[in-house]
């Protein structure tokens, strides 16, 4: 039987993130101003055709897969990348002072957009915050680090948008925010996981916190 994380985007759209989904039981995508991800129940020509007929614009659209995808001729593959899919394998983190951690809301969106544009942790749009549970650390009144939750292919919840301003690296902010996200996810009875580019030095940070690689997977950015 296929593991739920072998098709994480589709299974998130079908379960824990379905309130943000557009589509049917075979083909779905996130609302376009929340995230560019699309998922298919099965990688078939018919499902790609159905998605093309469904989507509101030409792209970009992002796909994750444990196997390499051969896209129809009409689809333009803009970028292909390899990732590690990592699952947290450890206890609930010890209690830490939360005095430096701020829950982020709509009023913080401009700063969140600026920080993610600078650090490039992955797609972050104006409504991405609606995935929920975004937290940040401020220094001198400015947002300098953040992390949040993204796709929920239940019982798993993805930690995402983990980033720190270059002027504030080396202060342990990523670890603090990661542990906070892990605690929140586990307190809800779910399992933390994340995706990271295979060559990203942050892999070592995630391993240190307690994440272990489950599987190497492929990512695609496409236009129609």
Explain how this protein is built.
The chain has helices at residues 8-14, 45-54, 109-119, 173-187, 202-209; strands at 21-23, 27-30, 38-40, 61-65, 76-88, 101-103, 135-139, 142-149, 156-164, 191-197, 211-223. The protein has 5 helices and 11 strands. The strands form 2 sheets. The chain has an 8-stranded mixed sheet with strand order 4-11-5-10-9-8-7-6, with helices on both faces. A 3-stranded antiparallel sheet has the order 1-2-3, sandwiched between helices. By secondary structure, the protein is α+β, with helices and mostly antiparallel strands.
Report a brief summary of the structure:
The protein is built from five helices and eleven strands. It is an alpha+beta fold and 224 residues long. An eight-stranded mixed β-sheet has the order 4-11-5-10-9-8-7-6, with helices on both faces.
Counted by DSSP, the helix tally is 5
Largest sheet entry: 8 strands, mixed
Q: How much beta, percentage-wise?
A: 25-35%
What is the gyration radius calculated from CA atoms? 17 Å
Q: How far apart are the first and last residues' alpha carbons, in Å?
A: 31 Å
Strand order, largest beta sheet: 4-11-5-10-9-8-7-6
Helical residue percent band: 10-25%
Order of helices and strands: HEEEHEEEHEEEHEHE
Record field, number of beta strands: 11
Note poorly predicted spans.
none
Taken from the alpha-carbon principal axes, the silhouette is globular
Q: Mean pLDDT, nearest integer?
A: 95
């Amino acid at each position: 039987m296929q593991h739920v994380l072998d098709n994480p985007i589709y299974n998130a759209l079908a379960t824990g993130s379905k309130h943000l989904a557009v589509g049917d039981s075979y083909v779905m995508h996130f609302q376009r101003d929340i995230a560019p991800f699309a998922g298919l129940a099965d990688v078939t020509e018919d499902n790609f055709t159905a998605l093309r007929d469904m989507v509101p614009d030409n792209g970009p659209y992002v796909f994750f897969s444990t196997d390499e995808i051969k896209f129809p001729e009409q689809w333009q593959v803009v970028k292909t990348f390899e990732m590690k899919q990592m699952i947290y394998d450890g206890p609930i983190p010890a209690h830490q002072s939360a005095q430096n951690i701020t829950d982020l809301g709509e009023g913080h969106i401009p700063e969140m957009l600026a920080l993610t544009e600078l650090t490039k942790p992955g797609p972050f749009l104006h409504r991405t915050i609606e995935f929920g549970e975004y937290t940040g650390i401020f220094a001198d009144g400015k947002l300098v680090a953040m992390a949040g939750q993204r796709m929920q292919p239940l019982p798993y919840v993805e930690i995402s948008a983990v980033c720190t301003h270059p002027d504030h690296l080396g202060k342990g902010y990523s670890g603090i925010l990661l542990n906070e996200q892990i605690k929140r996810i586990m307190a809800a009875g779910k399992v933390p996981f994340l995706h990271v580019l295979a060559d990203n030095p942050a892999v070592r940070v995630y391993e240190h916190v307690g994440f272990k690689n489950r599987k190497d997977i492929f990512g695609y950015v496409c236009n129609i």
